[in-house]
Specification:
This protein is of the alpha/beta class. It folds into two domains: 87 residues, Udp-n-acetylmuramoylalanyl-d-glutamate--2,6- Diaminopimelate Ligase, Chain: A, domain 1 (3-Layer(aba) Sandwich); 203 residues, Hexapeptide repeat proteins (UDP N-Acetylglucosamine Acyltransferase, domain 1, 3 Solenoid). The protein contains three helices and 38 strands. An eleven-stranded mixed β-sheet has the order 8-11-14-17-22-25-28-31-34-37-38. The protein has a ten-stranded parallel β-sheet with strand order 6-9-12-15-18-23-26-29-32-35, with no helix packed on it. A ten-stranded parallel β-sheet has the order 7-10-13-16-21-24-27-30-33-36, with no helix packed on it. The longest helix has 36 residues. The chain is flat. 31% of the residues are buried.
């Protein structure tokens, strides 16, 4: 693509020689790997030191950089522009391949036009699949499950019965949506299973990573709000409700009946107990633990999680504990010596 066409696509301003817009861009790359013909980006000042050795033909910036010999493309959000160009240059368009004879599809299901179903997938009774959706091999779809338009369901995904999936949803390989919630009642020395008769609702534009478990509700629905992104290896228990545009990072676990607001971030390995409430806009740092209760908007860290600023102060004190312990023992020794003298 010509640089001027890229500038139009990402709403950018070209900063360089008068005919810089005619530069031919043949690829998109990171700042360390970029070669002549590539466009790259810089999103933080710490990477400015990399510019003298950068071979890219153009660099995407948030603000014009003085005294560099590389043509610049100024945009409001370099990360977004970079992502847009990666999609433009490298993401292969979805191709309609039809419905394979090797797939097992109930005659009672409803498959819209332009749906692709690969071999060895199983589609049960009363399943509905919207236009343009792709079902890859070895996918199981249970009865009365609905999948919207333009979805990607990758290999070995299990969609149990009664699951509802919106439009433009991506579910990566090995994930299980609608497995039974972990519900038991203890009586006379035995655990008795509580029937899990609810469903799962996944709204539009959600992306779910590989090997994620989203349990069905005991009654009602487990809900994943529109635009939410879930990383690999995440556990979401029964009756959890996650709002819109939240981010759940790898190995996080969310206990049953927890309610999470919009634009919430749970970093890696965060654990949230059952019946917790997390307000919109909250950030929970990695490996933190959230116990039952109401978490107001803010940034938290630690187990149990406390406000981030308080956690930083606590970490400073924690590092000083060996020294403080030594000082305390010395003081105790001095006190004992004074007491011995006074008693004598």
């Amino acid at each position: 693509m010509k640089l001027k066409d890229i500038a139009s696509l990402v709403r950018g301003e070209i900063i360089g020689l008068p005919r810089a817009g005619d530069i031919e861009i043949t690829g998109v790359s990171g700042i360390h790997d970029a070669q002549e013909g590539d466009i790259t980006f810089i999103a933080a000042k710490k990477y400015l030191k990399e510019l003298p050795s950068c071979k890219a033909s153009c660099i995407i910036v948030n603000e014009a950089l003085p005294d560099i010999n590389i043509t610049q493309l100024k945009v409001s959000n370099p990360y977004l522009a970079f992502a847009t160009l990666l999609e433009q240059f490298y993401v292969k368009p979805k191709k309609f391949s039809g419905i394979s004879d090797g797939a097992i599809i109930s005659e009672k299901s409803h498959i819209a036009p332009e749906v692709s179903v690969f071999p060895f997938s199983y589609i049960s009774d009363h399943v509905k699949i919207g236009r343009g959706t792709i079902i890859y091999p070895y996918v199981f779809i249970g009865e009365h499950t609905t999948i919207g338009e333009q979805c990607l369901i990758y290999p070995h995904v299990t969609l149990r019965e009664g699951v509802r999936i919106g439009n433009n949803v991506i579910i990566h390989a090995g994930s299980v949506i609608g497995s039974d919630g972990f519900g038991y009642v203890f009586d006379e020395g035995t655990y008795h299973k509580i029937p899990q008769v609810g469903g799962v609702l996944i709204e539009d534009n959600v992306e779910i990573g590989s090997n994620v478990s989203v349990d069905r509700a005991t009654t009602g629905n487990t809900v994943i709000g529109k635009g939410t992104k879930i990383d690999n290896l995440v556990q979401i228990a029964h009756n959890v409700k996650i709002g819109s545009h939240s981010v759940i990072v790898g190995q996080a676990g969310i206990g049953g009946s927890t309610e999470i607001g919009d634009y919430v971030t749970l970093a890696g390995q965060v654990g949230v107990s059952d019946h917790a409430q997390i307000e919109s806009g909250t950030v929970i740092g990695g490996q933190s633990g959230i116990f039952m209760g109401h978490i107001t908007k803010g940034t938290y860290m630690g187990t149990p999680a406390i406000p981030h600023r308080a956690w930083l102060k606590a970490q400073v004190l924690f590092a000083k504990l060996p020294v403080l312990n030594k000082q305390i023992k010395e003081l105790e020794k001095k006190i004992r010596e004074l007491e011995r003298r006074n008693s004598g």
